[in-house]
Write a structure and sequence with these properties.
With 322 residues, this protein is mainly alpha-helical. Helix content is 80%, strand content 0%.
């Protein structure tokens, strides 16, 4: 016979109690870690910059700005892929290609191409109408995305909102070229890494620097207060690295979600997954601009403080009138 339970023994915690205890322990450890990092801020400028950049992002509504950019980005992808798939006949085999393969080669363009190809039964007959609708839509979507970037950077940098200073057709064409170049960089990088037997990290670093140079040029054309082009480098590098990370998420997570959700939710599931990835990209862009703005604020404050100290030391060294 099993021994009778000891009436004086403490009851064993149930499953819910163990979960609550684990969560409470994790919260306590996270709070301790946060306090340690906060205490290290005065002694480690890098940690302090990271915290202040996050605080700046929260204060300026970085999540809302990124959502607006993702919305504009989404409505640029649709007409662009419509022109490619329906109008120009590119990516005609997208409907028979796995989402993972398209994501590896062409990122969001490949995923959107699959959705449009799945919805189109005969691209030859609709090619003229696709061009007729897609080209004007692409022009207005590119122009809207330029305006959204200008407004977003103006809000993040705290400078007055500016309109498009270039001719609108030129701005739309340049923005389309920049986005296409970004997709090409990612696609070529993926192809080179698959074909080359050399070290992948070197190839990754080279293409990341190329993407950073492209975004550095874009950042220089957007509102940036009185910062120099070299002072925009940290944000450009952050954006380039962040886009590489987002591309990995697209390949190994979002594309699989699209593959599983297409049969259940159809185009709605694909659109939701693509929007999620575009939001991640927009979040990286916003945080990159915020990082540059925070670094510029610190430089401005240090310069003003140094000027005040120099003025004070000059006043104290001046001889008293006789």
């Amino acid at each position: 016979m099993p021994p009778a339970p000891d009436p004086g023994a403490a009851p064993q915690p149930g499953f819910t109690d163990r979960i609550k205890t684990t969560v409470a322990t994790a919260k306590d450890k996270a709070e301790v870690a946060r306090e340690r990092v906060e205490a290290a801020r005065p002694d480690h400028p890098t940690v302090d910059i990271a915290f202040t950049a996050i605080e700046r992002d929260v204060d300026h509504g970085g999540g809302l700005i990124a959502g607006a950019l993702a919305y504009r980005f989404f409505f640029w992808v649709l007409p662009f892929v419509l022109v490619l798939v329906g109008g120009l006949g590119f990516l005609s085999s997208a409907s028979s290609t796995a989402p993972q393969d398209l994501a590896k080669d062409l990122g969001f363009v490949g995923l959107a191409a699959k959705s449009i190809s799945d919805a189109s039964t005969n691209a030859e007959r609709t090619r003229f109408w696709a061009l007729l609708v897609g080209l004007p839509a692409l022009y207005f979507a590119s122009l809207a995305f330029v305006k959204a970037l200008i407004v977003a950077h103006g809000l993040i940098w705290g400078v007055p909102e500016r309109r498009v200073t270039y001719k609108k057709p030129v701005a739309a064409a340049v923005m389309t070229g920049v986005l296409v170049a970004a997709f090409v960089i990612i696609g070529v990088e993926q192809h080179v890494r698959q074909q080359s037997e050399g070290p992948g990290l070197i190839i990754l670093a080279a293409f990341t620097l190329l993407a950073a140079a492209l975004w550095l040029w874009v950042s220089w054309k957007l509102p940036h207060a009185d910062a120099t082009v070299w002072q925009l480098v940290p944000g450009a590098i952050l954006v380039a690295v962040g886009i590489q990370v987002v591309h990995v998420i697209i390949v190994y997570y979002i594309s699989r979600k699209i593959a599983h959700s297409s049969s259940t939710y159809g185009a709605l599931g694909s659109a939701t997954a693509i929007l999620l990835g575009l939001f991640f990209i927009a979040r990286v862009i916003v945080f990159g601009a915020g990082l540059n703005a925070e670094l510029h604020r610190r430089r401005t404050e240090r310069a003003a403080l140094a000027a005040q100290e120099a003025e004070a030391s000059g006043s104290s060294a001046a001889p008293a009138p006789s």
